[in-house]
Design goal:
This protein has 2 domains: 6-216, Rossmann fold, CATH 3.40.50; 242-369, Galactose-binding domain-like (Jelly Rolls, Sandwich), CATH 2.60.120. 28% of the residues lie in helices and 26% in strands. The protein has helices at residues 22-30, 50-61, 79-83, 86-91, 111-127, 140-147, 153-165, 172-181, 187-190, 199-216; strands at 15-16, 32-39, 66-71, 97-101, 131-136, 168-171, 242-244, 251-253, 257-260, 269-273, 279-286, 288-295, 301-306, 312-313, 327-334, 340-349, 361-369.
């Protein structure tokens, strides 16, 4: 055994089973199962994703069951965006079994925000009665800890939530690392670009989850288990209750339109302007406001304030890999207001000239944290 990889043994099992998939069993028994996915580009549909391979396995493993798939995973997104999308794209679409994969994409998020958004997503899903399974992939940011036999903090934080809510988890990245260690998988076939698995790597990820499901889907011979009661949150201010302001609701000054939108995954309509100095006034009741933009190199910035307070300006990076548009990106304006009615004023600004940015504003979601 390689001395470099031997600490992998200290990381424990790939699969941690904590509670039966009660709703999933009931769905399979009635012959209709809806499977949901929340995550980043590693999980997004694309034909060679682990999620696609897992669905193929499910169809084969459950003959006679009509399976629907709601894959709401979007590249370069994390739990804060998932928290304002879960209701509309997972819960309202009747998902019985939901896989959540944000350990990699949440890594660089400020820990407090990460904790509040993550637990908010899980509480929304569990309150709706969904079975939830946490799935952990691999990335360079996780490698030093993993090779030293330490659980990376982004996964350790999820595991605390998994214990608290009795959610099963599958460390897909650890499964693939152990395959590499055993000579069953070449690293370049697993992660050609260090983050996104190739077809063989996606199959490895899917196999770790299908191994979990092969046992989890076996009908119990005892009395039917009931879903556990939702415990108190671990994180103060978790984003448990989130709703949307309709895009046509804000008062407008300047040239705005609400448009059908087909070029950004996760955005079906946007509140759109290419003018600088165009204004919005959003009335809402809650303690926080989160916007989701179709973002890219042609995007501008915004100036905003709450309840006639001090103006603030957004300053967002635009990585080299970003296209002109097409990235659904969240912007947390605030989550610290006293609960109650508030007003947010927004004014469009041009993007930083030195970065070659444009003046387009395309708001796809207005999320209120209650």
């Amino acid at each position: 055994m390689s001395s470099l990889l031997s600490p992998l043994d200290a990381l424990g099992p790939v699969i941690r089973r904590r509670a039966p998939l009660t709703r999933t069993h009931a769905a399979v028994a009635r012959g209709r199962l809806t499977v949901g996915f929340l995550g980043g580009s590693i999980t997004a549909p694309g034909g060679t994703s682990w999620s696609d391979a897992l669905v193929a396995w499910l169809v084969d493993a459950c003959p006679g069951v009509r399976i629907a798939v709601e894959n709401a995973a979007i590249g370069a997104t994390g739990s804060e965006l998932a928290a304002i999308r879960a209701q509309g794209e997972i819960i309202d679409r009747g998902c019985d079994l939901v896989f959540v994969e944000y350990a990699v994409n949440d890594f660089g998020t400020e820990p407090g925000l990460r904790a509040r958004a993550r637990e908010g997503v899980l509480r929304q899903l569990r309150r709706a009665g969904c079975d939830v399974v946490l799935a952990y992939t691999h990335a360079p940011d996780l490698q030093a800890d993993t090779f030293a036999g330490r659980v990376p903090v982004t996964i350790a934080d999820y595991e605390r939530l998994a214990e608290h809510y009795q959610l099963s988890s599958v460390w897909m990245g650890l499964h693939a690392l152990r395959e590499v260690q055993r000579g069953l998988l070449r690293w370049e076939d697993w992660l050609p670009d260090a983050i996104h698995p190739g077809p063989r790597g996606s199959l490895s990820y899917a196999q770790s989850v299908s191994t979990f499901l092969a046992e989890a889907l076996v009908p119990s011979t005892g009395a039917a288990a009931s879903a556990p009661a939702l415990p108190a949150p671990l994180t103060p201010g978790a984003w448990e209750r989130v709703r949307h302001v309709p895009l046509d609701a804000p008062d407008r000054t300047g040239p705005w339109t609400v448009r059908r939108w087909t070029t950004c995954p996760g955005a079906t309509q946007v509140l759109h302007s290419t003018a600088t100095g165009a204004g919005l006034r959003v009335a809402f009741a809650g303690r926080g406001l989160v916007l989701a933009f179709d973002f890219g190199k042609h995007s501008g910035e915004i100036r905003y304030r709450f309840d006639d307070g001090a103006w603030q300006e957004s300053v967002r990076d635009c990585p080299a890999w970003a296209d002109n548009l097409g990235w659904l990106r969240s912007l947390v304006l605030t989550e610290d207001l006293p609960p109650g009615p508030h007003r947010c004023e927004i004014v469009t600004l041009p993007g930083p000239g030195s970065a070659g940015r444009g003046s387009r504003t395309a708001i796809a979601l207005i999320g209120v944290i209650e």
